[in-house]
């Protein structure tokens, strides 16, 4: 029994070895490699080797497989000639610029303009350090996320807040904390919108007046107008300079009708509205109606004139006798022509 099992295993090994010897592994060499067009930047290989049409019809699959294999092998051969570096057990190849222009449905995205903070950090040489997501939470004595659900050092869950010495003892500190957070969120959103508007080269929304290194005359007058409006009366009772001119940055003043004015004119307006509502008679545009009637009359005259110009078709017996045909005297057949003359 044991001998038969050994003989069976030996026969299986012999068959596997014979099959491996029969298989001819192809080399990395490619015939007519110069005819294969390569574009390493797009990982593209175009095989331009010509084949016989008769052979292609008979052995379509085998020919296509061999052409694809040659193109792929030539592409890999050229890729291994490029500079290769090994990183974390993987081989990285730096691809060159693409030679073939590939059509795109949409244009290439433009590079985003740097924000104000990025420009400031670049001038000051500040490097962007990535913060770790997990931080130490003192109350729970464990690591928790810096932000989000169940974040560390969450002050919104405090059930009591100590009132500062210089604060009003009757002021709601919880509401004050919520208001401060809303203001921070609104400020961040405004800054984001300012960055978006500046990147798209549109008018940047502002708060108050931004400082400049070399203020102009208009800038100073605008700053003065803003300072006047910053009072509780919006500049109504602010003292003016002796030769101060009215600012052109104040905007247009809205005009309202007086709450107590001419009662007669107000009564007349109300009566007109009531009269139009009660009658419900649609207003007729006399000029529009007259123009429409004139247009209809002109169209009718043009149709009558066209109908007079077109000749009527000759029907019945006259057509058979040939009376309607010009250029022939008498009309009709030769046999009937004489009879009609008699």
Outline the structure in words.
The structure is a single chain. By secondary structure, the protein is mostly helical. The chain has a domain at 28-98. Helix content is 44%, strand content 7%. The protein has helices at residues 2-22, 53-58, 60-79, 116-124, 173-199, 217-229, 263-279, 286-309, 317-321, 334-341, and strands spanning 36-39, 44-47, 84-87, 90-93, 134-137, 142-145. The chain has a two-stranded antiparallel ribbon with strand order 1-2. Strands 3-4 form a two-stranded antiparallel sheet. Strand 5 (134-137) and strand 6 form a beta hairpin. The chain is flat and about 125 Å long. The N and C termini lie far apart (136 Å). The model is unreliable at 317-331 (pLDDT under 50).
Topology:
Layout: H1 2-22, E1 36-39, E2 44-47, H2 53-58, H3 60-79, E3 84-87, E4 90-93, H4 116-124, E5 134-137, E6 142-145, H5 173-199, H6 217-229, H7 263-279, H8 286-309, H9 317-321, H10 334-341
Antiparallel strand pairs: 1-2, 3-4, 5-6
Summarize the structure.
InterPro entries: Ribosom_reg. It comes from Elysia chlorotica (Eastern emerald elysia). By secondary structure, the chain is mainly α.
Name its key features.
mainly alpha, Ribosom_reg, flat, 6 strands, Ribosome biogenesis regulatory protein, 342 residues
How does the overall form come out from the CA principal axes? Answer: flat
Give the number of helices. 10
Calculate Rg over CA atoms.
48 Å
- Please report the distance between the alpha carbons of the first and last residues: 136 Å
GO cellular component, one term: nucleolus
Main location: nucleus
InterPro entries: Ribosom_reg
Biased composition (Gly residues): 324-333
